[in-house]
Amino acid sequence: MTPLIIDTDPGIDDAFAIALAAGSPEVDLLAVTTVFGNVALSNTTSNALRLLELCGRSDVPVAAGADRPLVHPTPHRASEVHGNDGLSGAADTLPLASHDVDGRHAVELMADLLRAATEPVTIAPIGPMTNVALLLAVHPELKPKIGRIVAMGGSAKGGNTTAAAEFNVWSDPEAAHRVLAEEDVPTVLVPLDLTHRCAVGAGRLDRLAAGGAVGRGLTTLTPSYRATYQRQLGLDGMVLHDAIALAEAISPGILRTESCPVEVDCSHGPGRGATIVDRRRNSPSPRRRVEVAFDADVDDLSEFVLSRIVS
């Protein structure tokens, strides 16, 4: 089994990602760490605890991390997409957590787990990358313990929060730049270019709702998210951005990637938070390369994700 840490800001697509990991025997879910993002840190942390309870994984520790970006304040959250509590206003429909949040900061919990690890650990940041940037800055000696970083974020063709920027990267561009452009840990980036192609339609969501307690619990959380995609894309369904990244963390190679230099626009103009992905075949860029996921067998991928959650 691959040891896995999820760093997250639940969030409805984050909820599906946590359930996917909880239902996958290929990974040993070591911890869930939380960060500001879709909603405030207090909400993301409470949501993570409740989601693990829903999935029968109260054994997994949850630690709270950064409640703001590294440098500049974020102008707004994503409550218009995820609801004021991050889960369509339905967080309290989830079971109460039977365990408390871990007393350590998220970065220290991750560091402790890495020190103790006997196998390379995969870290999956599926929210703003603030905690992971801090981990790499404060504990560089632990980088050899990280097998891969598999991050959801960015886009080569424009954003969903601004014309240029995807939400996770836009929320803390400086952190994303450190993780994607300045570090040397093997990294996979799963951008909007792919996740938007992996939308889940109403039929598959109905199948999920007709399944077991986890599937029913998750579909209860989706109304505001589905309404957003109906307005924006005319889609009767939704996009499970973070679960697509988790699929790669769980099953390496399920997504098809290109090795590309990536930079993040940290200016304060209209391009702030944009990911500049250099797809030129013989790019002269001196930047390190990350694996950027641009393709997958979409039907197989959707089945992989949903079949693990229907329980």
From TrEMBL:
| Coiled coil regions in record | none
Q: Which GO terms describe its molecular function?
A: purine nucleosidase activity
A single GO CC term for this protein reads: cytosol
Q: Would the keyword Hydrolase be found if you checked this record's keyword annotation?
A: yes
Q: Which Pfam families match?
A: IU_nuc_hydro
Q: Where is the signal peptide?
A: none
Question: What biological-process GO terms show up in the record?
Answer: purine nucleoside catabolic process
Keyword Chloroplast (UniProt): no
* Gene3D superfamilies reported in the protein's UniProt record: Ribonucleoside hydrolase-like (3.90.245.10)
Keyword set, alphabetical order: Glycosidase, Hydrolase
Q: State the source organism's domain of life.
A: Bacteria
Which InterPro entries does UniProt cross-reference here?
Inosine/uridine_hydrolase_dom, IUNH, Ribo_hydro-like
Task: Name the CDD domains on file.
Answer: nuc_hydro_IU_UC_XIUA
Positions of the Inosine/uridine-preferring nucleoside hydrolase domain: 4-301
The name on file for this protein is Pyrimidine-specific ribonucleoside hydrolase
**UniProt organism field:** Kutzneria buriramensis
